[in-house]
Write a structure and sequence with these properties.
mainly alpha
C-alpha cells in the first residue's frame, strides 16, 4: 500500500505540474501554447471555459489513443479531468503574474515548457496510464518508430494550426512552444533516464482488482 500511495502522489504531482506549466506559458503574454490555442479557439466557438474544453478534447483524444492500441488507466481518466480543473483553479486564483516584454515572456514560456515536461515524466512514470495527449504521443511513437520529441512536435504543430483557424491567440510564444515542447520533453526524459514506451501501465481493470483485494483483506 505505501508503494501504491507513492505512485498516486507521483500521478497527482505530475498532473498539477502539467496544469501549472500550461498556465505559466499562458501568462507569458506571447500567445498561448499549441493545445491551449486549440482549446481557447474551440471554447470561444462553443462558449465554454478553457478548462472544460480541455476535458472534452481529452475524452476524444483518449478514444483515439485506445483505437491506436494504448491502454487506459486511472491516470488517463484523472489526467482528462484534473488538468482542466487545475487550470481553471489556477487562473481563478491569479497568483501567477502576467508579464510584459519579450525577454521575460520567453523566459516564462521556456519555464512553462519544462514544468509541463516534468509533469509528463511524473504522471507517465507512475504507471497508471498516460494522459490522452501523451497516450497519443506514445502511440504515434510506437507506430512510426520516430523519436518521442518529433512525434510530440508533429502533434503540437497540427493542433496549433486548427486552433489558429478557430480564433485562438497565436504569437511568438506559440511558435516557441510548438517547436520547443518536443525538445523539452526529450531533454527531461533523457535527464531522468526515462523511456515512456517501456512503462507497463496499469489498466483500470487492474486498479479495480487491486482495491477489491484490499477490501477483501479488511473484511
Amino acid at each position: 500500500m505505501p508503494h501504491y500511495l507513492k505512485r498516486l502522489m507521483k500521478l497527482l504531482l505530475g498532473l498539477f505540474l502539467y496544469a501549472l506549466g500550461i498556465v505559466v506559458s499562458m501568462k507569458a503574454n506571447l500567445g498561448f501554447a499549441p493545445w491551449e490555442v486549440f482549446h481557447y479557439g474551440l471554447g470561444k466557438t462553443i462558449d465554454l471555459t478553457i478548462g472544460t474544453v480541455s476535458i472534452l478534447v481529452g475524452l476524444i483524444i483518449c478514444l483515439c489513443a485506445v483505437w491506436m492500441g494504448e491502454k487506459i488507466g486511472l491516470g488517463t481518466i484523472l489526467n482528462m479531468i484534473l488538468i482542466g480543473v487545475f487550470m481553471d483553479l489556477l487562473l481563478m486564483l491569479s497568483f501567477i503574474p502576467e508579464v510584459n516584454g519579450l525577454f521575460m515572456g520567453i523566459i516564462m514560456i521556456i519555464t512553462g515548457l519544462f514544468i509541463i515536461s516534468f509533469g509528463s515524466y511524473f504522471y507517465i512514470a507512475s504507471g497508471f496510464g498516460a494522459g490522452p495527449r501523451d497516450s497519443l504521443m506514445v502511440a504515434l511513437q510506437r507506430k512510426t518508430g520516430l523519436p518521442v520529441g518529433l512525434c510530440r512536435g508533429f502533434l503540437e504543430g497540427t493542433v496549433v494550426s486548427i486552433g489558429w483557424l478557430l480564433g485562438g491567440p497565436v504569437g511568438l510564444g506559440t511558435v516557441l512552444a510548438a517547436f520547443g515542447i518536443g525538445f523539452c520533453i526529450q531533454t527531461v526524459f533523457v535527464i531522468m533516464k526515462f523511456d515512456a514506451t517501456s512503462v507497463k501501465h496499469e489498466t483500470l481493470n487492474a486498479t479495480r482488482k487491486y482495491f477489491m483485494s484490499l477490501y477483501s483483506k479488511n473484511q
